[in-house]
Amino acid sequence: MAFGSFDNGGASQPMAEINTTPLVDVMLVLLVIFIITAPLFHQAVPVDLPRVEASRLDDRPQVIAVAIDGSGRVFIDGQAVERSELAARLAELGARGGQPELHLRADRGTRYERVTEVLADAQRAGLVRIAFVTEPPR
């Protein structure tokens, strides 16, 4: 079905243009409705909460700071640890209770093999929350 004028005097060609004015009108109406109703979504239901005095829970996890310098030496909380006693020391710190976090700082020149050895010892000690500490670029 072709839409066009009722003029039969010439070659009857279908009109290939779509009238977008009604579409724009509907979109503007929807925009106005959205602008009016959007602030209503941010208002919460007013609830009068009870007032109770309670102590705050201190849920900060225990942090184990492990650093590896450029030569491959390992430090736990600033104290140098030998390779042979690293796993035992991490197991001891992990068994203190809770789920401690291991923050690993490795020098840029540290061999990847040394980092993986420390990560393997931490995994054997039961530490599953491990974070790699970096510095932002300058």
From TrEMBL:
Give the matching Pfam families.
Answer: ExbD
Q: Which UniProt keywords apply?
A: Cell membrane, Membrane, Protein transport, Transmembrane, Transmembrane helix, Transport
What topology in the membrane does the UniProt record assign? Single-pass membrane protein; Single-pass type II membrane protein
Where do the TM regions start and end? 20-41
InterPro entries listed in its UniProt record: ExbD
Q: For this protein, what is any one GO molecular function term?
A: transmembrane transporter activity
Output a single Gene Ontology CC term carried by this record: plasma membrane
Q: Where in the cell is it found?
A: Cell membrane
A single GO BP: protein transport
Query: What is the similarity comment for this entry?
Result: Belongs to the ExbD/TolR family.
Query: Protein name, please?
Result: Biopolymer transporter ExbD
